[in-house]
Amino acid sequence: SDVCSSDLKIPGGRTDSMAFCMELMEKAGVIVTPGASFGPHGEGYVRFALVLPPEKIREAVEAIRKSGLN
Q1: Residues with Cβ within 8 Å of residue 12, at least 6 apart in sequence
Q2: pTM value?
Q3: Between the CA of residue 46 and those of 1, 23, 53, 57, what are the distances in Å?
């Protein structure tokens, strides 16, 4: 099966990717990987693994939108 990922800059002037991941999990129920896990240049970003069916990805995007973290 195809696996795709996307690295996105964390919003709102935040700089701690781990803290943002925890907040996203708590408020939206969406789990992403902190960019800091990929080295110092990854800090300030998170990685989404796009491995679920498109409908589930849309649900995750909607949960993030509703969380107010975007």
Answers
A1: 69
A2: 0.83
A3: 23, 12, 20, 16
